[in-house]
Structures are given as structure tokens and as C-alpha cells.
Write a structure and sequence with these properties.
By secondary structure, this protein is mostly beta strands. The protein is about 0% helix and about 55% strand. The strands form two sheets. Strands 1-2-3-10-5-8 form a six-stranded antiparallel beta sheet, with no helix packed on it. It has a four-stranded antiparallel beta sheet with strand order 4-9-6-7, with no helix packed on it.
Length: about 120
């Protein structure tokens, strides 16, 4: 059994994809932890005004963001949309995407990535 607790984990503080401010995060699992096409599972916290900078993954990678708490603005391929607690956002291979906390509270998310090819 493998159990990791994001609430009890020490978060690292750094810029995420050259976004605004410093995001706090912990990589709970990486590619070596999985026997499937999953590449990673991150827990992240973005303070008000902090963002995950716009970026693109490789053509064989899909990524999902799960908004646990708070809200912000998601940018996918130049289309901006408000996202909130409970939203699950799909970033298809090759799509450009970024996320900014536009609220006055902490934005908490899970992000995971899957590769098509093992």
C-alpha cells in the first residue's frame, strides 16, 4: 500500500512555468510510482495573484487540473474561463494552458498528467 498525504506534506515554493509569484506544491507521485501511463500527481496552492504560467506539454501528454478550493481564471489556447471548486479541466496534448488565482483566497488544485505511450 502506498499512501501520501498532501495536507501533512511540506510544500515547496517556486515559480510554476514562469508564472506570477511563487506557487506552493508537492509532487505526491512521479512516473516511477505508476505501472500505467500516469506521469505525476501534484498538489498545488496558489495565493491571490499567483499563476501557473502559460505552457504546452508534449504531443503525447494530457493533463488535468482538479480545483479543490477557491477560484481563478484558466487560459486554454487563448480562451479564458473562470474556474471554481469542483471543476475538472482537461488540457489535451499540444494545448497551451495556464491558471491564475484571481480571487482573494488560496486556490488549491490537484494536477496530473498521463502519457499516451507507455
Amino acid at each position: 500500500m502506498v499512501v501520501r498525504n498532501y495536507i501533512e506534506s511540506e510544500l515547496n515554493e517556486k515559480s510554476s512555468h514562469s508564472g506570477k509569484g511563487l506557487a506552493r506544491s508537492i509532487k505526491l507521485f512521479n512516473k516511477e510510482d505508476f505501472s500505467s501511463g500516469l506521469n505525476f500527481l501534484y498538489y498545488m496552492e496558489l495565493d491571490p495573484g499567483v499563476s501557473i504560467g502559460e505552457h504546452t506539454h508534449q504531443d503525447d501528454e494530457e493533463e488535468m487540473y482538479v480545483i479543490l478550493e477557491g477560484y481563478g481564471t484558466m487560459n486554454i489556447n487563448g480562451e479564458f474561463r473562470e474556474v471554481k471548486q469542483g471543476d475538472v479541466i482537461l488540457n489535451r496534448p499540444g494545448w497551451s494552458h495556464g491558471l491564475e488565482n484571481t480571487s482573494s483566497q488560496i486556490l488549491k488544485i490537484l494536477a496530473f498528467e498521463v502519457s499516451k505511450d507507455l
